[in-house]
Amino acid sequence: MADVAVVGGGPAGLSAAQFAAKNDLDTVVFDTDETWMHKAHLFNYPGVRSMDGMTFVDIAQKQAEARGADLHEGEEVTAVEQDGDGFAVTTADGEYEADYVVLATGGNRDLAEDLGCEFTDEDVVDVNLDMETSVDGVYATGAMGRPEKWQAAIAVGDGAAAVLDILSKEKGEYYHDFDMPSDVPEL
Q: How many CA atoms lie within 13 A of 23 on its CB side?
């Protein structure tokens, strides 16, 4: 049983995983390594002068795992269904339970459609500013909710916005994740 199941291991999914795991939510990430970052090179990402997209993903994976996320590489999610107050996440390797689901599958919106999430006239998942879909507890990030704006920086922000909303729900009040230098553990 996980607090948060993240489907997708690109910038949005790994950002969501880092924020969730860092804040003590039991987090599982399912990654099929189909991220668009295979074709990307970051020149316009804040704090990065120049970095290959897969180097970025490798660093983000290590950060998520270091913060406690459980990364399931090569494990494809075949279905997500509502199950009581949470969700059943099915893969070829098994079934998992989660309280929240963050979908970060790029332009593939099949799982959102199967869950009954509403779509816009532009045929993208209809999300609010916190990336929550019409299905309570399901979030769609990155290209899932944007017809054109597919950028790593935007996707990372979407993943963070989704989990900040989850953390706010869990804590019963608005939660922001702002670290001070004294908060940083030795890495």
A: 22
